[in-house]
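tool_log.txt
---
The assistant was asked to compare two proteins side by side. It first ran the structure predictor on the initial sequence, then on the second. Raw inputs and outputs are pasted verbatim so the downstream comparison step can read them without reformatting.
(1)
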Amino acid sequence: MEYNNTNMTAMNMEDQQPKRPGFITVLCIITWVGCAFAVFGGIAGYFTTKIQCENMDSFSGLYGGALGDSMNEMMDKACQNIGMTTLINVLCGFVCLVGSIFMWKLKKIGYYIYVAGEITPVIAALFLGAGGIFGAATAIVGFVIAGVWVVLYGINLKHMR
């Protein structure tokens, strides 16, 4: 019987590669779906916001008082910053996608890329944000959601090299 050393070496190398934990697999797949929504939603949001800006009348009469003023402020800022906001959201969606692909391959650098992609839109929202009560609420919700995902991936850093 002939012994094939090449096949044995390949089998040993497969055994040495760390196995991806199921939790990282689930997180990455959900992240890919979320990145697709972020990219396509960002592009669609650009056009819908642009249409709303063109057709916008005052929200003050519709909602009245401080709520209407806050809505006006939010829409004015959204209309002023729609191009930059869309660009940041779409690019960060791609950055998160790249980071999650690295984490899928158990590369620790993917975590840091992902964190940059998650935190950048939240910081941008503070500077370019919609303003008012709704803008602050949106920034806080975005920060909490991003923080949860960063922590979930961070828990799994021990499995990455």
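(2)
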Amino acid sequence: MRKMMIALIAACALAGCSRAPVAYDGTSDGPFPIGSYKIRAAQVDYQPDMSYRIFDAKQVFVEGRYAVDGSTITMTDVGGKFGCKENPAKYKWSSNGKSIKLDLLEDRCQARREAMAESPFEKIDQ
């Protein structure tokens, strides 16, 4: 058993095994804080697979994909009632570990701009 564990650890070190998302370290310089946040009377989920969705108990407002480059998040809507598929958005993100704030860099979608302007969004404990 011990030999098998050592072999597994060595294989992971050489091959670069994927890890679970790293816990947010409390600074904006850390990894993007995936998770669920309160937005208006709805919720936004940022998933480890780089997808997001904004929804409530009745409907999905927006579904999309996101990419993070340092303190910039780029969001591209792919569906939902209010999705702006043709207009990716860029925001500067920051977090204190309890909430996330998105500051507008570029967004031609009025509905998304209005929703994101209400940040910071409080993290939902799960």
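---
observation on (2): The chain has one domain: 23-122. The first strand starts at residue 35 and ends at 39.
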